[in-house]
Amino acid sequence: MRPYWTILRDAFREALVSRVLWVLLVLITLVLLSLAPLGYRMDLVTEFSTFEFRDAKRFVQNLRREFEADEPSPGHRIWSLFDQPAQEELTSLVTREVRGRERFRTAQLLTEQLNKLVHRRDLYDADSWEDATIRSELRELLDREADSLSDLELARRNRLLLEANYRDQLQSRPRESIIITYAMLDMTPGLPLTKSQMDSLIERVALTLLMNLLLGWVALIAGILVTAPIIPQMFQPGSLHLLLSKPVSRSLLYVTRVLGGCAFVFVCVTYLVVGLWIIAGWRFGIWNQGMLKCIPVFLFLFVIYYVVSALIGAIWRNAVVAVVLTIAFSFLCNALNTSKGIIESFFVEPLRIVNLVEAGDTLIAVDERGVTKQWNEERRDWDDIFLNNGPPGGVRTLGPVYDSEGDRLMAARLRNAGFGGMVMMGSNLQVAVRDNGWQRTDGPSLPRGTFALLQDADGKLLAIGDEGVFRLDRLPDDDSPGVSLFGFQLPMASGPEFERVGPASMNLNSPAAAAREPASGNLAIYHEGIVDVLRRGEKGRYENLVSRELPSEENDNVVLAYAGETVVVARTDGKLLLLNEETLEPRTELQPVERSQPRFLSASPDGNQVA
Prior knowledge:
Blueprint: H1 2-17, H2 20-35, E1 38-44, H3 56-68, H4 74-81, H5 84-94, H6 100-118, H7 136-142, H8 151-163, E2 176-182, E3 185-186, H9 195-227, H10 230-234, H11 237-244, H12 250-284, H13 289-316, H14 319-348, E4 353-359, E5 362-367, E6 372-376, E7 381-384, E8 395-403, E9 408-418, E10 421-424, E11 428-433, E12 440-445, E13 452-455, E14 461-465, E15 468-472, E16 483-485, E17 488-490, E18 498-500, E19 512-516, E20 523-527, E21 530-536, E22 542-549, E23 559-563, E24 566-570, E25 576-580, E26 586-590
């Protein structure tokens, strides 16, 4: 074996002499140094943005109405502190019909005036906010003298005062925002993300994209370019005579040279990945062991391509031909992978049923692509219904939920945003009536960030989103006239149809899931590692019964079910956590299948079983 070890060492010595290894290590170092200053910091949310207002015109009208009432109130105090020119311009904008740029001007001017008040120490007046809903964070700040507050604490206090009576007119925002930094310089304004959301975004999107780019393409192509000459150089007269002068096998000589190229790439890739892993842990606190597992995975991938390159180099004895044909081979592999995805999308996924719903005497199904179907008894096959625009792939359907009173289906659709994320395809509920052949029409606007559609005990639709639990009390009259524009029928605004029926203070940040107990109608909601049980009270409103934070390692995407007195939480590692509904204390922990992530959980109608 000594001759082969000598040949292997010679491969490294040749790389060092040619400075190829040093050049690659320097380039990798420059890449790591350019990424090292990236980071983020948490900052308290203080100022408003123009996109926070659900309806800026309505917000201004409420302020003016309270001011004209001439009684102490938050609106009276806020409007009185606005600049006189701003009052006049806002009054002009909200007392006439405005469109486009003028509508944006209303939100822009309102934002400017509120942000001025955020920094005023004389904003708070006890009489004005006497009847306002004061939360614990604001109460703690109000208990302190204004002069004792730092500028940041003062701005936060005033922000909470300004939104105290108008939370239903503002988009929900977390207490803190994220500011991306580079070498201590702020690169972005405050982003409305929680720390867990930012960490998830970095880990599942940014790092995944970076690893795919650097290892999937850059490192692979660079490795092929650098190692392609190794085998052709072996056949040069001087090198060949020197190698064959030793008592070695030609086949083992060839394998040793291939291993030398793989070892060369292994050193460079290990340096790159370990460097990225240290930066992710040092700058973001993400010590993801999966990044280190990419090293053997990449090496396996590289070996496949390098074996092709080495074989071509041995046949044609030309490094350029080896590189070109190896890259062509990689395109062929990618084409096969794309073909596999297309075949699965059109021929396999339509056969995978992920949801079944009884709609009267009809059975409705949703397949893996998100396409809704109806069972045709005569043909003994499925017919596509609930038609939607655009390709079906990469879509997840919330629902559908069947409304027996109106004989209709209601659903929402989410499109895959990549790396496990889902985004809403539209902000409207999708409605299909049987009499109309289950054709899809747009219904009322869904609450922001809707992630679950359920039914309450009265058959009413529940939408659970970022801001809590909402109920659909009615749909717009199907016979109401609309407006025709360029041949398209536009729906008339009919006011909000979704009514908040959950606690007003709920902020359900992702990852989130929800389930309903069939017998009692109670709700279980998981959000950011916290499980809440909401009890259905009078008039169908929900009150918080109990809340519990799960251990940090369980703060991940989950699937939820609620049956009888048990809340079932299915985690990504395949474990099922059974919680008591009264206390949310763990009853037991199960793992039916080792290292298999559950996708769906369902409770039986009597609430006695979970599947």
